[in-house]
UniProtKB/TrEMBL annotation:
Its main location: cytoplasm. Belongs to the URM1 family. One of its GO terms (cellular component) is cytosol. One of its GO terms (biological process) is protein urmylation. InterPro entries: Beta-grasp_dom_sf, Mopterin_synth/thiamin_S_b, Urm1. The modification 1-thioglycine is found at G101. Gene3D superfamilies: 3.10.20.30. It comes from Strigops habroptila. There is a cross-link at G101 (Glycyl lysine isopeptide (Gly-Lys) (interchain with K-? in acceptor proteins)). It comes from the Eukaryota. The gene is URM1. This is Ubiquitin-related modifier 1. Pathway: tRNA modification; 5-methoxycarbonylmethyl-2-thiouridine-tRNA biosynthesis.
């Protein structure tokens, strides 16, 4: 059984508007049989933090194109993207790079 994981989850670049305007969230993910990864985190975020228009944040089981994901200030593409195994005290940042005109 994987232990609970405490994270800081942040949203910026307008993405925070989908989360009641709250940019920083301290979250503790509960115990589960498998270790937490970004794929599981995104589902947890959708169920527990996302307040409106999930189609603007997620596409399938991942984030929409145009949302930059940083794990501890490193691009998630360098970390294994959806398969990155979350560690206690990780900082996961989602930044929307799409802006209306």
């Amino acid at each position: 059984m994987a232990a609970p994981v405490s994270l800081q989850v942040e949203f910026g670049g307008g993405a925070e508007l989908l989360f009641d305007g709250v940019k920083k969230h301290q979250v503790t993910l509960p115990c589960q049989p498998e270790p937490w990864d970004i794929r599981n985190l995104l589902q947890w975020i959708k169920q527990n933090l996302l307040k409106e228009r999930p189609e603007l944040f997620m596409q399938g089981e991942s984030v929409r194109p145009g949302i930059l994901v940083l794990i501890n200030d490193a691009d998630w593409e360098l970390m294994g993207e959806l398969d990155y195994k979350l560690q206690d005290q990780d900082n996961v940042l989602f930044i929307s790079t799409l802006h209306g005109g």
